[in-house]
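We append the chain.
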Amino acid sequence: MQHPFVSYLQEFLKSFGGHYPPRADFDNWPESFRPYMAACDEMPERLSTLNDMAKFRHWLEERFSEVDITETEKEITARSGGFNPQLLGLLSCLAHLLHAYRWGTLPVTDEARTITDMTFPEALWKPYMQLNAYFGFGYMGTTFAIITCNGIFDKDGNLQGIRCYWNYSAEIKRHEEMVKMIAMKVDMSFVKFARILFHYLQLGNGTLRDHESHVEEQIWALDEAKKCLKNALKAIHSKLMTPGTGLERLFAPHFQDILGWGIPPTDIGSTAGDFFILHILSAFLGIKASHDSAREKLPATCKKLLSCLDVAREDRFKVIGLSHPGMQLRLSKAKKGLANVYYHFLMGHRKRIIPYMKYSRAGASGLINGENYRSSVPGVFVKKSIRFYVCGRRVQC
């Protein structure tokens, strides 16, 4: 019997047009979608020049005051029968507009952070909620909407740039693009990583692990998964977590804050914990970490793929039917090596939070302040709060 992950992976990729991240279409839009991209293109300049929350919101409200969204809703419905790249593009466009409306300025102000209840323009909110229902999540501030669906690819699948922005200054916009592209490239490693796990789980099917050669191949697969993960996270370590890059003074006030949401019950915005490759890793290893609740911000197909890894996990890393004592030790060591890559990523992320706080007290959720960020914010990891459990047992990394 095939492992559920092995059975579902191809269907999962098909649901996103054969790619992950999926390729959004920002050009071949029906007429009713076009006002959204026109406003999105104008938005960075307005955020910058108006520099006032009330004035910016008034501009966006006026921009859509006479838009009849009936046609927009019809066009969304007409494209909701399967994978549609135009809906991905519209999703990212609307997410950027709504986050800009929520905060109203860049950098984000203390006044905006006090707001925990607000009404959005119907022309923005209704189609976005329609898309959220279609993709299977109901949260704002999702990495899927802001990052995953925001890439521009060439015909060979190479990432060329980012379509939607918030910042107007050329220097800051360049850094926003760099951060978004780094995040995009992390999840561009997902397919290779998933196929390695696919191979591992195939080898662990039934009696296959009764043979020493198959255990050797599983050890090789875990080592390959480790290399793939390290390579995926390399740019984050070198560009975003290396002291002295100067990125803090630009990233924190001009990009990190606006990623947040800060309106209950969905306070957290887009965070590093949302990388799909990390969700897959957690489910594969049986790790329970602080960002588990972030699954709800993933599309339904992503949640289904993760649920495939949640089952039949008890003997995933056990050598069965072999008397050679060293094989279990080597398999366990390979598994721990993969977990350690994750651990060190979280530790690096935690270490770099502190200098960023000097430039932004809002943080990813829009609610963090210098006194309580260590203990109250999901997705921000401190060493004492990290707990890794593999097959019910804590991993000592």
The beta strands are 151-153, 159-162, 389-390, 393-394. The two ends are 34 Å apart (CA to CA).
